[in-house]
Amino acid sequence: DQQVKQNSPSLSVQEGRISILNCDYTNSMFDYFLWYKKYPAEGPTFLISISSIKDKNEDGRFTVFLNKSAKHLSLHIVPSQPGDSAVYFCAASAILSAGNMLTFGGGTRLMVKP
Amino acid sequence: GAGVSQTPSNKVTEKGKYVELRCDPISGHTALYWYRQSLGQGPEFLIYFQGTGAADDSGLPNDRFFAVRPEGSVSTLKIQRTERGDSAVYLCASSLVSNSPLHFGNGTRLTVT
Question: Which one, of B57, B65, B105, B56, lies nearest residue B83 by Cα?
């Protein structure tokens, strides 16, 4: 039973346009959400996070939106750049759980075309 | 180094053999995590250390898997009697304290033939 789902395995976007990556979760105990970016042969790199007390968090070209009632979050990248081409993982945790055990989605491969 | 270091980067072993995978976390990070990523999937939690002790090992798939962190820094993931299904990328991550963002290493790609 996948508690975090990324239903689009891949996304192709033209350079300069907006990329929107989506993520759905089922566990209502999740209250902290993160996006990680992964290049081939490297480990995931933390990108941006949001806690459940917010519905939006922005960092430069990256914005994460959280819709708690729909159990849905999205990552917006604007403008998209070729260097953004990577696999993006959505992850969730329950802050009050021990440690920071993250549950990851299956990833979305983003390709930004020049 | 500044980041999380994992060795070896690649390991090929025969079914039934024993393997050890090493993780050197960022200096000063008290929390250390092991994850496993199979092809086409996201990372799956295996075990979490706070200091020297395993605070949560609920993700270890069976008793062939064991991990230690004897001095609260370097950790070793040990897999006995390897099976072909153990083939995956094993990722280690550390964080300054629990509940802060994880910093991942580049992983060890384990292939069991």
Answer: B65
> B85-105 pLDDT, tens per residue?
999 999 999 998 766 789 999
User: What is the band of B57 on the pLDDT scale with cuts at 50, 70, 90?
Assistant: very high
Mean pLDDT estimate for chain A: 94
B103 close contact with A: CB closer than 8 A: yes
Smallest Cβ–Cβ distance between B43 and the set A6, A42, A44 belongs to A44
> CB contact, 8 Å: B48 with chain A?
yes
Report residue B97 as tokens: 């304290």
> CA Rg, chain B, in Å?
13
CB A10 within 8 A of CB A107: no
**Confidence band, pLDDT 50/70/90 cuts, at residue B1:** low
Which residues, in sequence order, are bridge partners of residue A62?
A59, A77
Question: Are B39 and B22 in contact, with CB atoms under 8 Å apart?
Answer: no
Q: DSSP label at A84?
A: G
Q: Chain A closest CA to B105's CA: distance in Å?
A: 5
How near does any CA of chain A get to the CA of B38, in Å?
Answer: 10
In the block, tokens 């970016």 appear at: A37
**Rounded-to-integer distance, Cα B84 and Cα B92, Å:** 21
Question: In this predicted model, what pLDDT tens digit does every residue of A41-80 receive, in sequence order?
Answer: 899 999 999 999 999 999 999 999 999 999 999 999 999 9
Instruction: Name the burial class of residue B52, with classes exposed (0-12), middle (13-18) and buried (19+) by CB atoms within 10 angstroms of its CB.
Output: middle
Q: What residues are paired with B10 via a beta bridge?
A: B109
